[in-house]
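Hey all, quick one. A colleague (J.T.) asked me to put the zinc ion job into the tracker so the inputs and the structure tokens live in one place instead of scattered across chat threads. No bug as far as I know, just bookkeeping. Sequence used:
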Amino acid sequence: MSDTQMIRIFDTTLRDGEQSPGATLNLQEKIEIARKLEAMGVDVIEAGFPITSQGDFESVYAISQEVENSIVCGLSRCVPRDVSRAGEAIRKAKHGRVHVFCATSKIHRENKLNKAIDEIIKISVESVAQARQYTDDVEFSPEDGSRTELDVLVQITQAVIEAGATTINIPDTVGYAVPEEYGHIFAYVREKLPVIDEKGIYLSSHCHNDLGLAVANSLAAVQNGCRQIECTINGIGERAGNASLEELVMAMRTRKDYFAKYQTRIDAKKIYPLSRMVSNFTGLAVQRNKAIVGQNAFAHESGIHQDGMLKDRSTYEIMDPLDVGIPESKLVLGKHSGRHAFRDRLNQLGYQPDDDLLQRSFTAFKLLADKKKDVYDEDIEAILDEQIGKTRVLWELDRFQVTSSSGDTAMAMVAIKDSTGEHRMEAATGDGPIDAIYSAIQLATGVTVTLEDYSTRGVTSGKDAQGEVSVKIRHHDRTVRGRGLSTDVIEAAAKAYLAAINRIKVASDSAEKSDEEVVEQP
Ligand code: KIV
Ligand code: ZN
């Protein structure tokens, strides 16, 4: 009999990942990411925290109807109205899970909750029982579990299992644990509670990366009986982030000799396109030297390394970039390619656009192909991600003119078009061309905002490469991101700014978050 163990991959990009400072995803973007997570073979998709806002509720509800093969999960505090909101949100899921959490460490009990452990166990048990009215699949997390006294962990685990919890997740909420210690927690709880193995209860890890140990801690947990790992694409998440899905999966695959017993269902070839999509949608750039998906992850600069690589790749490369879906940049389409070829290419890249998205993307592709000689897969993915990310367009950039020279104030004129086709034109000066065009856009739209973050990256290389600009702007107490793509960096910057202003306007027009509740985020 084989003793291979399937490790469940629980992806929380759409919940803990979206809690990354500055990351906001709209509904369409969340659905698109969820589809790709499902196609990649993720076992559980944590789609949001339904009580926190109407938007979060709606995205968990929508993803529940969209996804068939993965379990769709909604997070909840141990508060009756949270649990019912999460339960309602996953009601339509083919496989739905409610994930309830309550802090258990002494620090959290005394300084945050001001509750004794008996009361914490009581509300946890009640919440698990309430969640079971919506689904048979209930996960419980003792928040700050890694800093909780071991016997308290055992006590609460036993109580919530009796109440109906089927997965127990022990989070290293503040990223404080070290691998041996974290692994020991799993061995200890399992040894003290034989019911875990008898009933087939899943133990789960959830590690934050404050000391850079999230992946190592998760793997230590696996070696001590943990059967589900919670993680995110690109390792995004609160503060320093969560354990990164791609690093975990590739560690287990690449070191099959060491992790011989453990397998995941992940199709690793889908890693890179999804990493790009998450980075594009959230506006969170992937650091160049990030393992697996960073721009330098497979680049060899030193002469000695290059020489070794030419003789035999395995001298300096432990993974094949193709295995994680990093494309060999190929010329795929040109300006004479038709809609049919374009759609085929999108399908090959994993997109199934509806007619409207296909039309908008094809128009953007044609415009690009007129400006740029070589169009690569990366260009096409960037176009698609840009079009998917668009909220209802209120204002569109029609044209602009910028003058800037050393020593002189920059000047910009911008013409925008609103949804009725009406044009507005404004001019402004600024401290450089971007500042000038941003001032002109504010005048033209009548929306005053503060720029909080601005970043740019090249989508492909070469002098006609597309540049992508990502901005974060603040309007009163709301911050949003916008993205723009063009072979002209000033145009990309203007489009990104306008995209963010569109989002602000759409959100305030529909008072999207009017019933939003302020909820303590774990
Ligand atoms: O970090 C944490 O403790 C969490 C829990 C909700 C699992 O995100
Ligand atoms: Zn977390």
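Adding what we noticed when we looked at it: The first strand starts at residue 5 and ends at 6. Residues 16, 75, 101, 141, 143, 169, 171, 173, 206, 208, 522 surround 3-methyl-2-oxobutanoic acid (ligand 1) (CB under 6 Å).
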